[in-house]
Structures are given as structure tokens and as C-alpha cells.
Amino acid sequence: MTSRTLLMTWLRHAGAAATLAACSLFVKAQTVSVPAASAAPPSAANLVSLRQVFDAAWARQPEAMALQARRDAARSEQAAAKAWTPEPAALELSHKTDRLNRRQGAREQEVGVTVPLWLPGERDRSAALAESIGAAVESHATAAQLRTAAIVREAWWQWQRARIDVDSASEHLDNTRRIAADVARRARAGDLARADQHQADGAVASAEAGMAQAEAGLAAARQSLRALAGTVVAPSKAAAALAEPEPGVAAASLEAHAALQALKDRAAVVERAAMLASTQSRANPELMLATTRDRSAWGEAAQQTLTLGLRIPFGGGPRFEARIASARAEASEVQAQLALERERLIAEREAAMVRVDSSRRQLAAAERRAQLARESRSFFEKSFRLGETDLPTRLRIEGESAEADRQAAHTRIELAAAISAWRQALGLLPP
Questions:
Q1: Which domains occur in the chain, in start order?
Q2: Which residues does residue 290 pair with via DSSP β-bridges, in sequence order?
């Protein structure tokens, strides 16, 4: 076989190997799972509960959009850890000739394959690291959901407080207008002075200003909720007033909290990364298998040899020590964060329970005050019609009753918000 024929044969083999490698890369690219498109948020007509608002807000979060891609990356890491070699094999081709200088017909062609080898313990620790990365992806997503739930809950109950303010201001405005109409009628009849009518009209103007302020607060709260959910939330009183159920005893496990679990999984990733770094003290050794065909001059017979080689890089040194120290420092940092987060969650749970108990007592007192204020308003309303009570007293009693009703309604919302904060401290998502 002439050197030209041999060279063409090697080139065909190399082209076939390159084509095969390109095909394998194409197939791999085609088989990589594509993240599913995020579900479209519900329409405004359907967003009537805290859970629906949370689902819509979570679908818009960057963590939710990148979750499937992170899962695919974790599965790829696990598949790579199960491979026979840490890196793909390499094809080596070389051709030597003296045509440019001596022209004595010397030729040498070499075809070889280089296969990287795992270091002792590297494969098992790579598999352990890949497994911990997969768990960390899921716990990170759950912790992100809980952080989103905290923001949504705060905006949701702020919206409820604003709605209560609007309802209370509207009721107070209706009552003051009714009183002003009664005063105007009696002033025309000569039973009350014109100054009384001015005072009643002033009370109506004050109630209108309060109504405008409450509506502005409601608009701001609605826009904050819209920025989270991506759409306007339907103002359904029946569904919006439903509070979250109180958590049961089984939900009180501190170690199952999503924030703690995310830190635990992150600590596991860092620790296993440090263990893997301790085994990677040098680059991976390489096993080489090659065949060589050469001749030294024109007319001499070609000789073919087989080469089996092993390449072992030197290791150790400052770079290796720096990598190990960095991994251990990160592991220590995560462990410290885990301890601090555990203490913070314990304090947050205790504060949430105290807040719920305090809100219950406040609600009982506020409802009793509202009931007494409504009864007093009824008494003074009758005495005002009979002329036994002056207008300033009637307006004062009306204002006190409106404030008592508003406070009672606010306290109901505060109790529901306290229960929601308690569930948040326990790591529970909206039901």
C-alpha cells in the first residue's frame, strides 16, 4: 500500500469518526428535554383566592421559569457521573514526512485513541455530588416558592385591609349623608339652626375626603397585587374573606421547613464538592492506544507498530490546596448560615403564635366595642329625632360607631393575616 493510499484511508477513517461524533452531538442535542412553557396565569375572573394569586405569581418568578432547565442539568450531571470515563475519548492523527527538507522518502503515520481515566474514588464522589445537586435543585425551588408566598400573603392582606377601609368609609359616608339630609329637612322646618346644617355638611365633606383616601389606598394595594400576579384580581368578597386554616400539630416540624431544607441540601452539595476536590489532586490520567506505520527511506518496507501508553500528570501544590481550602471555607459558611436560620425560624414561630393569640383577644374586645357602639348609636339616633340630643353629640356618636365597626373589621383581617403569617413561619404554602 502506497503512502498516498494509506493517507487517504486514514483521512476517510478520520472523516467517518468526525461524522459519527457530529451525529452523536446532534442526537444528544435533540434528546435534551426542553423546559415546558410556563402555564398562563389565570384570568382576572378566576383570581379570587389567595392560592390562585400565589399560583399566578409563582409562574412569573425566575426560579419557576428556570426550574426545568436546572432539573435537566442535574440529570445530566448524574448521567456524566455514571459514564465509564470522566471525559470523552479523543482521536489522535499524525503524519510525518521529510518531503520539505531531505526528500529521502521517510514517512510516518500514526492513528491513536486517548481515553481519560477516573482517579481513585472520583467516580463515586462525583455520583454523590450529582445526587445532592438534584436534591438541592428541588429544595431551592420549594424555598423560592415559600419566599414568593410571603410576598403574596403580605400584598393579599394589605389589599384586604384596604378593602375594609373602603367599605367602612362608604358606610360612614352614607350615614353622614343621611344625617345631613335629616338636618336640612329640619332646618327648613325651623327645628334646627342653619349652623347645624353647616356642621352636618362639614361632616359629609370630611367623610367624602376619607372615602377618597380609602379608595386611593385600595388602588395602590390592588396594583401591588397585580404586579405580583400579572393580572387584576377580582374583588370577590365571599372568596377573599376566607382565611387560611390554622396549622395542625403535624405541621410544626422545624427541620422540614423549606428554608432549612434548602440550606441542608446546599451544605450537602458543598461538603461533597469538598470531598470530590480532595480526590482531584491532579488531572485525570490518560490511556493511549495507537498504531504507527513508518518507513525510513524510499524502497524500504513499511513497518507497523502498536503503542500502549499511560499518561499520569503530577499533582499537589498550592493550586490543589487552595481549591480544598475554598471548598472547606464554603462548607463552614453554609453550616453557620444553617444554625442562624434555625434560630431565626424558632423565634419567628414563637412570635407568630403570640401574634395569633393577641389578635384573638383584640378581636373579642373590638367586636364587643362595636356592638356597644351600634346600640349607643341606635339610642342617640332616636333621641336626636325627638330633639333630646344636639347635633354635635349625634355626629360624635356616629363617628365613634363607624370607627368601632372599622376596627372590628380590621381586627378580623389582622387575625386572618396572623394565621397566615403563622403558616408562613411553619413553611406552609397557601392551601
A1: 42-82+118-281+316-426 (1.20.1600.10)
A2: 112, 307
